[in-house]
Request: fold
Amino acid sequence: MSESQQGLALVPVILSGGSGTRLWPMSRQIYPKQFIPLTGDKSLFQLTLHRLEGLSGLPFTLVICNNEHRFMAAEQVREINADNVRIMLEPAARNTAPAIAAAAFEICAELEDAVMLVLPADHILKDRSAFHAAIGAAYMAATAGYLVTFGIVPERAETGYGYIHRGQTLTIDDACQAMFIVDAFEEKPNQSTAEAYLAAGDYFWNSGIFCFSAKRYLEELKQCAPLIHTACAQAHAARSRDLDFIRLDKDAFEASPSDSIDYAVMEKTESAVVIPLKAGWSDVGTWHSLWEVEPRGDNDNIEIGDVVTEDCNGCYIHAAHRLVSAVGLKDQIIIETADAVLVVPRARAQDIRAIVERLKGGGRGEVITHRKVFRPWGAYEGIDLSHRFQVKRITVNPGQSLSLQMHRHRAEHWVVVAGTARVTRGDEVFLLCENESTYIPTGTRHRLENPGKIPLELIEVQSGSYLGEDDIVRFEDIYGR
Reply:
């Protein structure tokens, strides 16, 4: 599909609810893989938005994400100046079938005959022109009433993906790309079965990318999974707007069964079609898969950051904060962050989940967040932490403001190191410039603002009997928290 094809009511829907546990320690609950720049200076989420450039007839793009990531998603949209992007918030994780249903109700409320293009936010697709050509064929099938999935032409006997078995050829006038009736969806196979699928030549990897009429999807969902349809209809009917976000009704959405679109609809419908896609696709599910798709340097290594190696082969080494050196390693993954280091053989990259589960079981914060935590107004980064004090570096973006707040158990010292701060402390309002400081006593209402045109950087020293992030009483907040 190209810009020359006008009048196409196509609405991309980007699913951004994943957690990416197998890409720990870079990917974490508060900062999952889709928002991380793993393959350059843009995140996978931003690359997904860029992948839409060149498509015509896009009235808007709808992003589905959870409440926790809403400001991160909005900021990354702003950073790349993406046009006509709406963000819908899931009140709870209910898998892909309900998320897509909520999106379909939103689209039908405005454009009853629109076609949805459903894209995960955390995939790589290197050949955009090939992808756009496949979208054009999928659009034709969708307007004919079919529910289309994209099948990745397999390059190897992969056990980490589900498969799609193609049936008879489907012919649609003017469609220049092959498409097939879906014969069956297959679960992730063992090695021998995967090899048999590859040898047969009529199996594809299940990409998780879909294209269909929003109205047709809801019709099939009502037939195949009526409880999901009812819950999502009610959740959308009772939706509200909060700043730039569309909020689904929490109680109604939580009443929906949790199910994937594959199980809820695609495996049950008689209208499923698969279009082969060969476009440099990867779901970036593990560090091993990232090693496979990215350009490799000397000795088949990928080295990112301050890395020095000697006699290493087939390794993926990412140094985020300090020098990482390695000698005599083969087929290993080393990931360094500010608060964690991972070392694992590439062949066992899938097993990182076990480490994450052990950390969760131990109540470790390293699975939840990084030292640097993003907020709608900027970010803060932990520098030091002890029993009764904590040191943070705080960045407030130009024109942004923290809430008017109070802490019951801690006092704060602020030292400005760059920019200008407007400080509210009790009944006082005053400016602080570089190398100036102030003190916020326990129990005092206060607010920090950046009235300038450059980022405000300051060092905050907290002291008190309790230093948790939940010791905060908000009185006013422009972000509706």
User: Anything to note?
Assistant: The longest strand covers residues 203-213. The radius of gyration is 25 Å. Residues 1-7 have pLDDT under 50 and may be disordered. Residues 228 and 256 are 5 Å apart (CA to CA).
